[in-house]
Amino acid sequence: MEHAHNEMNGSGVARQNLTKAKLRRGARNGRKTLIEQAHGLQAGDGKALEANWTQADFIGTLSHELRMPIHVIVGFGDLLLDGAWGMLQENQKAIVGKIKQNACYLLDLITDLVELNRPDGGMRLARREEIDVDGLLEEVEAMTQFMPKADGVHLELKRPPGLPPLFSDRDKLKIILRNLVGNAIKFTQRGKITIAARCDPKEQVMEIGVRDSGIGIDEKDRQRIFDMFWQGDKSNSRRFGGVGLGLHIVKRLADQISAEIEVESEKGRGSLFRLRIPVRPD
Fold first, then answer.
1. Domain end: 56, 90, 116, which one?
2. Does residue 15 share a domain with residue 146?
3. Strand, coil or helix: what is 38?
4. How far apart are CA 276 and CA 262, in angstroms?
5. What is the number of structural domains in the chain?
6. pLDDT in tens, the chain (282 residues)
7. DSSP single-letter state for residue 47
8. 232: domain range?
């Protein structure tokens, strides 16, 4: 009986390993297909404005259809974690948590694709609204709990008391920070990620920095990291995933809100992305 039990356990582990391998292959193939299709769209010369609007309308409709079932997955995940059908064991909670994390990642990716494929090239006029910087940073910090990250990586939020309000486009700024933090999480396997804010009253500029202790960026690659679909070392794209959209969207949206993005990095020692936003843009 014990021998049979061990055989059953062995076959169960083998099935789990096979399933994991299939999921990894599916994820790699999905990323490859998405990149190839996106390059095809980018290569088009956009001869007719009507075609651009048709594409944007299609993507908008598709994104709506994709979001609905993903929101259902997230909702049921919350119910399971809250014990709606009985309390889960710790290993079951971890599995449901991973499902929810990846569902939220898909929602973020859909948002980025919609922004990327706007018929106006994503150049929607930036709004000017009063932003509570403390509240915005706390919201971004809360969003990180749904981002898949390595064990032992923790996030730290630093800002002095009494930060003045910022007048900018809150939605665009949140997308920028989400992508910067998400990028830091993706390439950091241990250590910490710090989000720090300060205001320079002399220059009337708000600085928000995202620092990580991750793999860093080669000096020769720093001029290309904001290019669409650029991922640098192919081994990194296979190891860490992604399609090379996040930093491109960061740069595009930063330009739209009259912000500057600065990068400091050293290979193997982490990176700092510093966003400089006018407190009251002209």
1. 116
2. no
3. helix
4. 8
5. 2
6. 444 444 444 554 555 555 445 455 544 554 555 455 545 545 555 454 455 556 667 667 777 788 888 888 989 999 999 999 999 999 999 888 888 878 887 887 787 777 666 655 555 567 789 999 999 999 888 877 767 677 778 889 999 998 999 999 998 899 899 899 988 988 888 889 999 999 998 889 999 999 999 999 888 888 888 887 666 665 555 555 555 678 888 998 999 899 999 999 988 889 999 999 999 876
7. -
8. 129-278
- What is the distance, to the nearest Å, from the Cα of residue 277 to the centroid of all Cα atoms in its chain? 20
Residue 40 burial class via C-beta count within 10 angstroms: exposed 0-12, middle 13-18, buried 19 and up? exposed
- Phi, psi dihedral angles at 19 (to 5 degrees): -65, -45
Q: Decide the pairing of beta strands 260-266 and 129-131.
A: unpaired
pTM of the predicted model over 0.70: no
Instruction: Give the pair of three-digit tokens for residue 189.
Output: 């396997």
CB 272 within 8 A of CB 216: no
